[in-house]
Design goal:
Layout (H helix, E strand, L loop, with lengths): L10 E5 L30 E2 L1 E13 L2 E12 L5 E2 L7 H31 L6 H27 L5 H17 L7
Parallel strand pairs: 1-3
Antiparallel strand pairs: 2-5, 3-4
Helix pairs in contact: 1-2, 1-3
Amino acid sequence: MRTKISVRLIGVVFLFLLPFLTLAQPYRKLSTRDFTGAPANDGFAAYTYCYVSYSYQPTRRNGNYNIDFNVQLQMNPGRSWIKYAQVNNPNDLQDVLKHEQGHYNIAYLMRNELYSVLSRHRYTSNYQAEIASLFREVDNKYHKLNSDYETETQHMADIRNQQKWDLWFSKQLNTTEIASNY
């Protein structure tokens, strides 16, 4: 019999115009080393804290605005945690890590799409508002995706739906354009 483990929603924080406070991390598989924070006093077994940040540098040429973007995904191990006392065996730990990987995958996909959307847009003198609007569109899409992930997997308790999402992530990651500004 499998132990049901609830997992808290990802702590995805999207920061505006955060210039290079920490180094961005390329896509990777999460491990227990990524969960060193102190667990919260709640009913969840794990929490993943990662975020997408961006900065930009506009230049004006002949009345047009060219904007160079830096969009980063960062994982914060000190604010991510696992309650090891709620994980009964190594297989359960792997299940928790796999579910948490899904949250990281969502943030990774958001990072790539945000970079693509921002880089392909043609900007006017109102570029700051245009950038903010594009960010909100992408941000809303991925907040909904993360919510759908938690609801459909029931915080990883629904094994069948977790497997469907794992397959979906695999397909998305295999077809995702890796943005080149890391």
